[in-house]
Each structure stands twice: as structure tokens, then as C-alpha cells.
Design brief:
Elements lengths: L3 E5 L5 H9 L2 E5 L5 H7 L5 E4 L7 H4 L7 E4 L9 H6 L3 E3 L2 H20 L2 H8 L18 E5 L3 H12 L3 E5 L12 E3 L4 H6 L2 E4 L13 H6 L4 E5 L8 H10 L2 E6 L12 H11 L4 E3 L8 H15 L4
Parallel strand pairs: 1-2, 1-3, 3-4, 4-5, 6-7, 6-9, 7-8, 9-10, 10-11, 11-12
């Protein structure tokens, strides 16, 4: 194929588009393409920049006769059949470093908002309800947080927590070699987290192994009432288990940036009703998968892809 064409399924910043143009690629926007439409034209492209909109499964990749690489804006590659792509000599790269700080900042904001009753008091004031004693909060300094998944996002969150006097218990299913950090205790399994943590935060990819990682059994094994955060993937935390934990008081506060079905309008009636009930609970915060979606993160992800693509194109 004489012309090197790149399909943009998601918007990118000039720092990346200018780089691709300098490398001799032509850029074409395909923001509105769906799976079926892409399957009709994927053979025309050398590279693709994507997000999570379209699933790059084996049937689609089998048609990508001229595709050399896929660049993922963000973290998590569960929507790309990376193994099959590799068998077709298609290089797949992601940019989790780019939005790690954004996710960590939102996680910190959610934790602080829950501990200090910020959203609850704000909502009450909109109804002219002035409550001080009922909204007396708890400082996060001196608490113990269990961070499950110590990759880019989890580690950045752990760093922010340790700087604020939080003891961090870090666990990751993959062995990692991190620089020593006096505020982080590395756990070989979840037992110490079950025994000591008063806050749990998930930062793991979505796989068969992490499907419903947080469930009723996990909740039962926690020895203290705890705060729950999930900013990874919605299917990691079983929605009913979060709801049940809140009802029983075992979960004293919960914040979800990600949901089992997104957007929540795609949920079945039962799951949607539970989501609505949680969103009206005073000790729950929900957001629309915006944690890693800052303007800054978009630029950083483009810079990350530029750096990684520089080694292969």
C-alpha cells in the first residue's frame, strides 16, 4: 500500500497529529464509525488511534490486511484481541501513563468528599437544610487504605495518599519492582488488607480473573467497616454487592466512576433501579466514567502515544 493512512476513531491533540503527519501519514477522521462500517474499510489503514468505542475482535482484525499498529488512548486493552493482533504482526500500544494522575486525583477527591460529607451537605443546602453535627466528617490522615492494582493509576493514588498521612497497603497480582516508599506496605496477598484496611480502591484491568473481584464474599471478609472506590472498570465491582454493603452498613461510603453497564441507560431495569437508589444515598458518589477524562490527560496520552509510536514507525 503506497499511502500510509491512519484512522482516528477518537480525537487527538496536535502534538500527536503533527507527529504522524511529519512521519508521512495521512489522517482520516472516523469518529462516527461503528463496528460494521469499520469492518468494511479497515483494510485501507496502516494505523488506527482508538478509545473503547469499537471492539477489535478476531473477525475484525482478520480483515485488517494492511494494519501495522493500533494506538489506544487510555488504559485497558480488554476491547482489543491483543494476542490475535500479535499473531498478525499488528503492534498494540496503550497510554495508561497519560491519564494516571487524572484518575488518582479523582480517586483522592472522591475519598475526601465521602469522608468530609461534602456532597451530602451541598445537596442538603440546596434544599435549605443546614446540618453541622450530622455532617461531622473524618479526616483521612491516619486511615489505612488497601490499593488493589498497583500499576500506573494505583501507584499514583498511593503516592498522593501517603503524602497525606494515609497508610497504604498495596497489592498487585503481578510482581512489580517499585522504588521503596516509606508509606507503602507491599502485600503478597489480600489477607492484611482484609484485616486492616478501612478504605479499598480498585485499579485493576478488566479480565476474566477480575470480573466481580469485589463481591459479597470480599465484603464479608473485610474486618472493619470501610469506604469503597472503583475507578478501574465497572465489571470489577459487582453492583449488587456494593448496594448490599451500603444497605447493611458494612460499606460506610462508596464512590463509583465506572459501572457494570455504561452508560447506565443500557442497564436492565433491575440494575438501573439499584443504580438510581444508590445515587440517592447520602454516602454514595457516582460519576460518568470521567476520572481519566481531563483535558490535561488527553494531551498527556497523546504525548505517551507519540513516544511509543516513535519506536515502531
Amino acid at each position: 500500500m503506497s499511502v500510509k493512512r491512519v484512522l482516528l476513531i477518537t480525537k487527538i491533540e496536535p502534538v500527536l497529529s503533527d507527529f504522524l503527519l511529519e512521519k508521512g501519514y495521512t489522517l482520516e477522521e472516523g469518529f462516527s464509525l461503528d463496528y460494521g462500517q469499520l469492518s468494511q474499510c479497515i483494510q485501507d489503514y496502516t494505523g488506527i488511534i482508538t478509545s473503547t468505542k469499537i471492539k477489535f475482535d478476531q473477525p475484525l482484525l482478520e480483515k485488517a490486511e494492511n494494519l501495522h499498529w493500533i494506538g489506544r488512548m487510555g488504559s485497558g486493552m480488554e476491547h482489543i484481541d491483543v494476542a490475535f493482533a500479535k499473531s498478525r504482526n499488528i503492534i498494540c500500544i496503550s497510554s495508561p501513563e497519560g491519564n494516571a494522575n487524572a484518575v488518582a486525583e479523582q480517586a483522592l477527591g472522591m475519598y475526601l468528599a465521602l469522608q468530609h460529607r461534602i456532597v451530602k451537605s451541598h445537596t442538603e443546602l440546596r434544599q435549605d437544610i443546614w446540618l453541622r453535627d450530622d455532617n461531622r466528617g473524618f479526616e483521612i490522615e491516619g486511615t489505612t487504605a488497601g490499593i488493589i492494582g498497583m500499576g500506573n493509576n494505583g501507584y499514583r493514588f498511593a503516592q498522593k495518599l501517603t503524602a497525606m498521612g494515609v497508610k497504604v497497603l498495596g497489592f498487585d497480582i503481578e510482581a512489580k519492582d517499585y522504588a521503596p516508599n516509606p508509606g507503602i506496605t507491599w502485600c503478597p496477598d489480600l489477607e492484611q488488607i482484609y484485616q486492616e484496611a478501612t478504605m479499598i480502591s480498585f485499579h485493576v484491568p478488566y479480565t476474566k480473573e477480575t470480573h466481580h473481584y469485589f463481591n459479597q464474599e470480599f465484603c464479608k471478609r473485610m474486618q472493619h467497616p470501610f469506604t469503597l472506590l472503583n475507578l478501574s472498570r465497572g465489571e470489577v465491582a459487582e453492583q449488587y454487592a456494593v448496594y448490599d454493603g451500603l444497605l447493611r452498613g458494612k460499606i460506610v461510603g462508596a464512590a463509583l466512576d465506572v459501572w457494570e453497564k455504561e452508560p447506565i441507560s443500557k442497564m436492565d431495569d433491575k440494575m438501573f433501579a439499584i443504580a438510581m437508589e444508590m445515587l440517592h444515598m447520602p454516602n454514595f458518589i457516582g460519576t460518568a466514567h470521567i476520572g481519566g477524562y481531563t483535558y490535561n490527560a488527553n494531551t498527556k496520552m497523546c504525548l505517551t502515544l507519540k513516544k511509543k509510536l516513535g519506536f515502531i514507525i
